[in-house]
Amino acid sequence: MSGDQTASSAGHKGSVTKAVIPVAGLGTRFLPATKATPKEMLPVVDKPAIQYVVEEATGAGLNDVLLVTGRNKDAIENHFDRAWELEAALEKKGDQQRLQRVQKSQVLGDIHYVRQGDPRGLGHAVLCGAAHVGNEPFAVLLGDDLIDPRDPLLPTMLDVQRRHGGSVVALIEVDPAQINLYGCAAVEPDEGDVVRVTDLVEKPDPDSAPSNLAIIGRYVLHPAVFDVLRETPPGRGGEIQLTDALKTLIDEPADDGGGVRAVVFRGRRYDTGDRLDYLRTIVSLASERDDLGPDFRAFLREFVATMPPEAGPGDAS
Questions:
Q1: For residues 286 and 107, what is the distance between their CA atoms, to the nearest angstrom?
Q2: Helix, coil or strand: residue 315
Q3: Which stretches does DSSP call E strand in the chain?
Q4: Rounded distance, CA 24 to CA 38, Å?
Q5: Could you give phi then psi for residue 287, rounded to 5 degrees?
Q6: Cα–Cα distance measured from residue 99 to residue 113, given in angstroms and rounded to the nearest whole number
Q7: What is the three-class DSSP state of 290?
Q8: CA 87 to chain centre
C-alpha cells in the first residue's frame, strides 16, 4: 500500500483524536454582557460554558483540542493557562478545593489555538482547522450546546464513524414550527437511533422542511470535508455553511469520504446560546448540585409560591 493510500484509509475509518471547537462568534444575543467578555466565558453556575465543552471532548478521548478564536477572545486562552498568582494565593490560604478546580482547566488536554480572521460562518471556522487536523477524521463541538455527561453522545458518534466511515452529525427532534431555527435533515432508517442522512437543508421554512430532525452542535467529520468547504460558496446569511458542505458529501463515494449518518439524540442537552435557555440551563444544573441544590430548590419553591401573577418589566435596555 502506498503512502497516499495509507493516509486515505486512515482518514476514512480511524481512531479520532482531535476536536475542533469554534469560539470566534460575537455573541450578539448577549450584549452588552459580551461587549468585552467572550460569550463562551459566561458562567454556567461557576464554570464557563467553554470548559464544559472541552471537558466533553477530552472525556471522549479527544485530547488534542483546537479552539478557533477571534478578536477579543484572549480570556479563553487565559482560562486554560496557568494562573500563578491565583494558585499561590489559594495555596497560601490552604484552599485546596478551589485550587484543584482552578488547576483542572489547564490539564484537560493539549489545547491549541488558531484565529478565524474573517468571520465567514461555521464552515469557514471548521476550514481554519484544516492544517492542524490533517488527513484524519475529527470532531467538531459547538460551544452553545452542552451535553449532559450522564447522557453521552460523542462516544456513540465516534463509534458510528469508526464502523462506517464518512461523517456523522447529531440530531434532535424539535417542534416542527421551530425547525427554521436549525439545519434540518431528511433521513432513512439504519440501526436504532442511527439513521442515514439523505438530504440537509439550512434553516428551512417549516412548511417545506423534510422533517423535524434538527442538527445540533456535534459532528464527527471525514477530512474530505475540507476540500468541499474550499469550494463551497457562501450560502444562507452570506456565510459558508457546514450544512452545505455535508450535503455535497452525502452522495460522494465512500472511498472518497462520502456518506453521512446521524445519531438521533434523546438525552439531556442545554442550549446556552439563547438567553432564556441559558437561564434554564443554570437553574437545571444548579438545582442538581450537591453543594447548591438543596438550598437553591428551597428558594425556587418559595420564589414561585410568592411571585405575583404578573412580574414587572425588568431591565430590557
A1: 25
A2: coil
A3: 18-22, 43-44, 47-48, 64-69, 110-115, 138-141, 145-147, 167-173, 183-191, 194-202, 213-221, 260-264, 269-271
A4: 9
A5: -65, -25
A6: 25
A7: coil
A8: 29
Give me the residue label for grid cell 464557563. Answer: 48
- C-alpha to C-alpha distances, 151 to 35, 59, 148, 245, 317, nearest whole angstrom: 33, 13, 6, 28, 38
Grid cell, residue 238, equals 452570506
- Identify residue 87 by its one-letter amino acid code: E
Helix (H, G, I), strand (E, B) or coil at 298: helix
pLDDT tens-digit map of 113-158 = 999 988 788 999 999 999 999 999 999 999 999 999 999 999 999 9
Any idea what the Cα angle at residue 127 is, between residues 122 and 131, rounded to 5°?
Answer: 150
Other beta carbons within 10 Å of 192: 8
Amino acid at 161: Q
Q: Which string of DSSP letters, residue by residue, matches 196-243?
A: EEEEEEES--TTT-S-SEEEEEEEEE-THHHHHHHHPPP-GGGS--HH
Q: How do residues 46-94 score in pLDDT, each as one tens digit?
A: 999 999 999 999 999 999 999 999 888 999 999 999 898 999 999 999 9
Q: Cα(114)–Cα(127) distance, rounded to whole angstroms? A: 11
Q: C-alpha angle with apex 251: 15 to 238, nearest 5 degrees?
A: 90
- Nine-digit cell at 246? 455535508
Q: In terms of C-beta density within 10 A (0-12 exposed, 13-18 middle, 19 or more buried), how is residue 52 classed?
A: buried
Query: Is this structure's pTM higher than 0.70?
Result: yes
| C-alpha separations of 243 from 122, 154, 250 in Å | 9, 19, 11
Q: How many residues are recorded in the chain?
A: 317
**Cell digits of residue 78:** 487565559
